[in-house]
Amino acid sequence: MEKSSEISTPEGRCAAEIVTSLQRARKNLRIYPENNPIYMRTVEDTYRKTMEFFEFRDSLELRIQRNEFMLGSEEVYNGTGQEENFALFFFRDGLRSLIFTSGLEQEELLNFLGVVAVDLDREEVEEDMVTLLWEKDFANIKYKVDDSVLVEDENFQKEAEEKAKENPTEEGVMQQAQDAPPDEEETAPITPMPITQEDLEQLARDIEDYGNGILDKLTDIVFDMLYASGGIEEFKDVARIIQNAVEHSASNNDLRGAMKIFQRVKEVIRKTKSENVGKTLNEVLRLAGSASLMKIIGERLDAKDGIKDEDFKEYVGILSANAIPQMIELLGGLQTIQGRKKAIKALTFIGKRDIGALAKGLKDQRWYVVRNIVLVLRETKDKNALAHIVRALAHEEPRVRREAIKGISDLRGLKYIDRIVALLYDPDNSVSIAAALALGRFRNKLGLDALQARITDKKTLEEDPSLLKKYFESISYFKYDDVIGFLEDILKKNPFFGRALYNELKASAVYCLGLLGDPRAMELLEELRESKVKQIAESSNMAIMRIQRAKKG
């Protein structure tokens, strides 16, 4: 490993940095295209460090041993125990010294790095390092060779590398994924290389430094690294880089970038048969519901231009039930109607997977959050949600109680009809009206009896006569034969109480006959149209017209 922290001379420390930069350049030039910013920065950084050394000396000679690079008597690199021993890479081909002189140009260094980056282990590469360097005939880069080692035992490299591995990894973890990689158009094959922690950290920095313009290419590279990983621990390290890429996309408001990564991850999960691979990558997918990404989603949903429906739909499709709590929190923080509508749809989609987790939102201290959770529970169309919705009937906020009534009505929760009947007498009129409407939609005798009792209660007229029309609208949901007797009693018999209140009641009953739309009511309505009470006569005329229009239609 690098020994710069133990080197006493400034030129020694500079030489150690150059060796590290050369090793990094070898890897980067093998995975990045020539026009890539990271490729060019790697070359520039290596050249700059080399030029800094020439401030100390006119030439840099690095002596090469099996595991070390030496500057004079100082050790500036030690590869013992490393997965990729950079000194051994040169030593095995007989190189014993590299010499860089002060006339070195960046183009010349680039060509040298191109030689170093060649994968000499591929079958189609017949030359060795010495031959490649000889062919280039560099003016300011020289080397010394020990010819005797070129004919040593062909197993030397394998044995040396085996000794250098201190921590063997689980083999074959990605075999199934390698057998069936995600489809890509014209993806250039790469040769698997050992991945060090430094490589992973550098790639994470590159993602941060170069932003969205390079993210697509970096994503391809990272997934190539994923397929090339040789063991589960190495695989997990690469997966963490993928997580960094997702977080970078989130911090740069790049939802599309994050989605591309998630889709690639899903493809690998779909094709692999390895439980360890699937488990590790599912942790990456969980990031779709992370607080950081949800925050970005919330800001975008509230923005004037919002999020495209197709983009948001794709994002929601990635979410698992684990994202429900974060989505509830997001919904509670949205400020716009457009944003809330999208969040409600999203929560409905993922909430179907875990009604219990969704129902936990009913404990929220914000009434509007509770109301929206009741709405979402209703929209799931899952009858298991009824047991949770009914709890909201006792909420202190009338708007929550109204939403709960609607939920029980839509999901046909007849077993809770007695709870709805009780709310006919809720102190908030809007809740009472909602309960009456639900009972009408149930078309249940218990509900009809409750509605008739509420209508004929003297307190109903005394409290608010305008409520009568709403109650009678609920009566109109029932069959004509079931309610005509009740309506005729109101219209023909003497009033139950004062004449003014009686006229209100009678006019509302006439209004109900019109809503029922049954021609059998015409005779009675014709008679009532002649009433001397203007309110009743006008109501009868309107009811007749309504029935006639219905008949024509």
Key features?
single chain, 553 residues, mainly alpha, Leucine-rich Repeat Variant, five-stranded antiparallel β-sheet, 29 helices, 62% helix, disordered N terminus
The profile of the biggest β sheet is: 5 strands, antiparallel
Q: How would the global form be characterised?
A: rod-shaped
Helix-strand makeup class: mainly alpha
Biggest sheet, spatial arrangement of strands: 3-2-1-4-5
Q: Alpha-carbon distance between the termini?
A: 89 Å
Rounded radius of gyration (Å):
39 Å
Q: Total helix count?
A: 29
**Mean pLDDT score, rounded?**
81
Low-confidence stretches: 1-5, 150-154, 163-195, 210-214
DSSP, total strands: 5
Helix content: 55-70%
Q: Which strand-content bin applies to the residues?
A: under 5%
Textual characterization of the structure:
This protein has 553 residues and is mainly alpha-helical. Among the domains are: 4-164, no CATH class; 354-442, Leucine-rich Repeat Variant (Alpha Horseshoe), CATH 1.25.10.10; 456-553. 62% of the residues lie in helices and 5% in strands. It is built from 29 helices and five strands. The protein has helices at 10-31, 37-53, 86-91, 106-116, 129-136, 156-164, 175-179, 197-210, 212-228, 232-251, 255-271, 275-285, 291-302, 309-318, 324-333, 337-351, 355-359, 367-379, 386-389, 398-410, 417-422, 429-442, 445-455, 458-463, 467-475, 480-492, 499-516, 522-528, 534-552; strands spanning 59-64, 68-71, 74-78, 95-101, 141-145. The chain has a five-stranded antiparallel β-sheet with strand order 3-2-1-4-5. The longest helix is centred in the first third of the chain and has 22 residues, at 10-31. The termini are far apart. The model is unreliable at 1-5, 150-154, 163-195 and 210-214 (pLDDT under 50).
